Amino acid sequence: MSEKRILIVEDEPIIGMELQESLEQAGYSVPEVVRNADGVMPAVIKYNPDLIVMDIYLKSFIDGIDAAQRVKMMKETPIIFLTAYPNDSIRKKAMTINPAAYLLKPIEDSKLLGEIQKVLG
After folding, report:
1. 100 FRET partner, CA 20 to 30 A, in 12, 66, 91, 93?
2. Residue 86's pLDDT is what?
């Protein structure tokens, strides 16, 4: 069985690197940490990920939810949202695309890995 490929979308470089390191140590392939919403679709096309771990608030014209909606129009890639802002209206908006999980930062590795395991089996 080949390694599962996970794309990370995170605009904070330190958080992105920490997520990448954690996932790679757990045996997943992380081909890229995308820093903004504009880079999501090209990365999805290039890497064909099995899962996307996406921050909701990105320093971009569009947010992670909008980027996820664009991905879902093209491909049914599971998406785990991460956010540092427990805002009910944002959560409701995020739920409209039926994410695999919605997790609050700071996220413990064990919690994230548990959710990934549920999605990827």
Report:
1. 12
2. 85
H or E element that contains 6: strand 6-9
- pLDDT, residue 61, reads 87
b/e code 69-102 from CB counts within 10 Å (16+ = b): eebeeeeebbbbbbbeeeeeebeeebeeeebbbb
The domain ranges of the chain are 6-120
| Pairwise CA distance, residues 65 & 96, whole Å | 9
44-61 per-position pLDDT tens digit? 999 999 999 999 999 888
Total-model pTM: 0.96
Q: Is omega for the bond preceding 106 within 30 degrees of 0, making it cis?
A: yes
